[in-house]
Every structure is written in structure tokens, then in C-alpha cells.
Amino acid sequence: MANSILSDKKLRIFFLSWWLVCMILQFIILSQFNIDIKHAAIDSIVSIVLLAATCFFVSNNMRFYMPRREKYWYLLVISLTLSFFWMIAQQGVLWMIFKSSDVYPEIISDSWSVRFGAGFLLISFMTMFSLLWYSQQEQSEMENRKTETERLSKEAELLKLRQQLQPHFLFNSLNSISALTSSDPEKARNMIHQLSDFLRGTLKKDEHQMNTLEEELQHLQLYLEIEKVRFGYRLQTEINCSDDSLKYKLPALLLQPVVENAIKFGLYDTIGEVLIKLDASIQQNNLKVTVQNPFDPEISQSQKGTGFGLSSIQRRLFLLFARKDLLKIKKEDDHFITIILIPQTI
Amino acid sequence: MIKAIIIDDEPLARSIVKEYLQFNTDIELVAECSDGFEGVKAIQQYQPDLVFLDIQMPKINGFEMLELVENTPSVIFTTAFDEFAIKAFETNAIDYLLKPFTKERFEKAIQKYQQQQPQKIAEVVDSAAQSPLQNNRVVVKDGSKIKIIPVNKIHYLEAADDYVKFITADGTFLKKRTMNFFEQSLSSYHFVRVHRSYIVNTQLITRIDAYEKDSHLLLLSTGAKIPVSKAGYAKLKEVLGI
């Protein structure tokens, strides 16, 4: 909603002085026509207060309705109509006040054309001013929105890039391969294939694509195999899926960062063997995936960025399904559990 | 003979360093560790001249491990994370090997170490304080045990000769560092040095009383009373916005 013209303190003062000047001018003009001070003063006050109220009305109205360019004649009609009503109202009120006086009501009704003209000028000025004011507001709002959208899309792009590249994972894997080339060339070759398949899969996948759980798990398996070579006996994984869940669909690469997160906190928060568990089942026609990893509650409470990986998943789920309740986390003793529900609507 | 230790949580990453060292007759590999805890122990036990150290490791990272050892040996960092490079040199590392590294690059690092001998690094320098603490926490030694204390659990710090005393929710610990070091590294976590010998967690302040001329007394929610100097009071006023 655009700000009203009167929302700015400076403009409030400006309009107040503006109407005061109009009031004084009218008083001077009436005095020049030999009307006594008391009558002139009351007439000026009543006319200008009513006029100010009319102008406020018209400007406030335009805050909610802005005619498009081909409908600008509407502004003319409004200005004319309001000037007319203002004149009637003014004449009525003044007549009530002065009805006991003998000459004055006559002067008022005789001067209707001058009054109407002056009223019309001021009201149309106010209409024009409001038109400019609100068009400009609309413009700046549109620009703000545009920069905001641009910023968001840039951020999304960066995030996508970063997720695709995963430099730490990549370099550490390459280092493992480098070590294997002399000790176990066969295994090294195997790992190169796994790594290439994994990277190709990541690059090929479109974020808006929906894949079956089966496909996604195949991709995830590559990742897990590579990580297992890196971390040796420390990393154990267990995947349990009900048969029907394998055919259910989920957004491409959604589970990858969840599992990555689980491995990261599992491996770096604890010492010794780490078991990462992934379970998938069907719950009221939704695909439910839980990922569990051990963690150390004492260290983790001080960890910054614990939620980074997860908050981007929450965002993705929200963009896809317009729901904020699809991702849940649970901490049970020394286990960290991430639960994701994927509605089967698409 | 140069005594060396490898500390890295990935077995293959250790094996590659081992392989590169295999035919080097100057260096004797005395131990291999898979985390910082083993690292601290091994350094104490073997007093090595040189350590090949990974940075991201379980529980405590490479920098935190270095803070816990008394006579810091020379360090060559081996890691895939180049965002840590600057900090590594602030801790006076000999070199910084980005994984995966070649044998030539590795040997260059060894040469660098041999040239720098015997001018050994005495201690991790205070310049590392310019960067904030790793992961919002401080790692301390409690007897032979290692404790990780989240910053928000620290009540205040008190100077104690060559040490800094940490008064925390989990007890009191000593760390061999200067007050200046912690004044800087904790400045981004609601901590203010209110006195030459005190750095306090401002989130725990419940009252500030005038004490003697030019000095004040702080009351923490834990009941502790801490003196505030004139300069400390000015800093405190600025931080708390009063």
C-alpha cells in the first residue's frame, strides 16, 4: 500500500499553510467587496475547511484507485462533481448560519460561479498532485521489488553453483584417489568412475525436476561410496526403504545436502564409528524420509551455521509446495534426526 | 634426524604423506594420529620437530589442537580448505599444502622447513587473534582431559600471571595466552575488557554500581563481582549503549 500524502510531516505542514493562505486570500477578497469582517471571516473559514476536507477525500481516494492513462477524463469528472457538491455544501452551511441576516445570503448565492471556479481549480490541482504523488510511489515500489527479485535470483544461482561444485568434497576425494593410485590402482580407478558418475549426475540434474526415490538413492549411493573410501571404517551407512516408497517422487538432489549435513556433523562432532541411517516410508500418500546421525549436543549448541544446509532445503520445499511444515528436526539424546515429508501432488 | 607426526582424520590422506616421506632419510615418522586428541598426546609423548596437520578434524580442529600443546612444533598444514590459509600463516606455519598436492610441492615444503631451522616457532603468535574464534568456542585442557567450552558459557576471564583464567558454567580453567589475545578474539561475542585483569560476558551483567572514585563494580547474574576501571567503564558504556 502506498503511503498517504499526509504521511510525511513536511507535507502536512505544507498543506496546512497552503490552506491558511487560501483562507486569508478569501478573507481579503471578501473584505475588498465591503463585506463586514465577521461575515467575511466566517465565510472564509467555512468554505476553506470544507474545501480542504473535499481535497483530503479525493486524494485519499486516489490512494486506493489510480485511473490508468486512458481513463484520466475520470479525474476531470471527479473534480467537477466534487466542486459542485462542495459549493452546495458551502452554500447550505452558510445559509444556516446567516439566515437571520438580511443581505448576506444573497451575496453568497450570487457569487456561486466565482466560488465554483475557485473550488474547481483547487480541487483539480489536488487531484493532479495526488496523481503525481501516487504514480511516483508506485514506480519506486516497483523498482524495489525488481531489485529484490534480482537479488534473490542471484543468490539462488550462487547457491546452486556452490552446491554443485562442493569444492571440499571434490578436493578431498581427489586426494584420496591420489593416495590410492600407488597403493591400490584398481580401487583408484573405481573411485574415479564413481566420482565422475556422481559429478555428471549433479550437473545434469535440474532443480525443478522430480525423480523417483529409487533414482535419487542411486545417485546418493555414489556419494556415500566415495565418502566411505575417504573416511574408511569410521563411516557406516544404513538405508531402509519400503518397496512402495521407491516409486514415489521427490525433487532432484533434495536429499543430497541433508545427507551431506548428517555426515559432516556425524564425523566432525564425534569420535569413532559413525552410523548414518536413512529410512523412507509412505505416510498418508506422502513420502517420508528420515536421516539420522549421531552428534555431540555439547559441541553442537555452539556451532554456528548448523542449520545452513537445512535452511536452504526448507526454502526449496517452501518454493515447491508452499508449505513450511515439511522439514522437521529432532534431537534425541545424541542423535540428530531430520524428517522430510514430500507431498505427491505434482 | 627430524621427528615427524601426521595428524589427519582420513586414512588415505595420511598414507599419501607417509608415501612421500618413505624415501626421505632425514625424516623419521614417529606417530600417526586420526584426531586432535591423539595429536595432543602424541606431541607430548614424542616431542616431534615437525607436524603435518589437517585442519578439519573431529571434535577439535587443527588450530584448536595447536592451542593445547605446550611447545608447539613446526607445522605444515595439509588441507583442502584454502579459506584457512591466512590463519595458518598467522600461526606461523612453515607451509600450507592444498590437497591434493604433488610430491614436488611436498618436498618444497620440507625444504622450507629445513631452511628455517633451527629458528623454531616458540609459540602460536597472538596475531591469530585478529580472526574470531573458530566455531564460537574455546578449547581448554582440564588435567589430561580436553574440554570444549561454547563462548556463551564463559562468565568472565581473569588474568593470572602468564595464564588467563576462564570462569565458566563448567568450572574454572587456565589457558596459556595473553589477555590481549582474548580481548580481541572475543570482542565479537559480547565480551568487553572492563579492567586490565578482567574480560566480562556483558550478557550476564545485572548491575553496575559506582564504587570508589573513577571506578565501578559489576554484578553478574552468577553472583560474581568484578571491578571496572575508568577506561573499562567507558568501553562498557559504548558497547551497552548507555
Unreliable residue stretches of chain B: 118-130
- Let me know the largest β-sheet of chain A: 5 strands, mixed
Q: What proportion strand of chain B?
A: 25-35%
Largest interface: pair, residues per side? A-B, 30 and 26 residues
Could you tell me how far the N terminus lies from the C terminus of chain B, measured between alpha carbons in angstroms?
A: 61 Å
Strand content of chain A: 5-15%
Pattern of helices and strands of chain A: HHHHHHHEHEEHEEHHEE
Short characterization:
The complex is a heterodimer of chains A (346) and B (242). Chain A has helices spanning 9-32, 37-64, 73-98, 104-110, 112-165, 167-183, 185-204, 213-231, 255-269, 297-300, 308-321; strands at 210-212, 235-241, 249-251, 274-283, 286-294, 327-332, 335-343.
Can you give a write-up of this model?
The complex is a heterodimer of chains A (346) and B (242). Chain A is α+β, with helices and mostly antiparallel strands and 346 residues long. Helix content of chain A is 66%, strand content 14%. In chain A, helix 7 runs antiparallel to helix 8. The radius of gyration of chain A is 37 Å and the shape is rod-shaped. Chain A starts with 8 loop residues before the first helix and ends with a strand. About 1% of the residues of chain A have low confidence. Chain B has a five-stranded parallel beta sheet with strand order 2-1-3-4-5, sandwiched between helices. In chain B, strands 10-9-8-12-11 form a five-stranded antiparallel beta sheet. A three-stranded antiparallel beta sheet of chain B has the order 13-14-15. In chain B, a hairpin with a 5-residue loop joins strand 13 and strand 14. The radius of gyration of chain B is 21 Å and the shape is elongated. In chain B, 39% of the residues are buried. Chains A and B meet through helix 6, helix 8 and helix 9 of A and helix 1 of B.
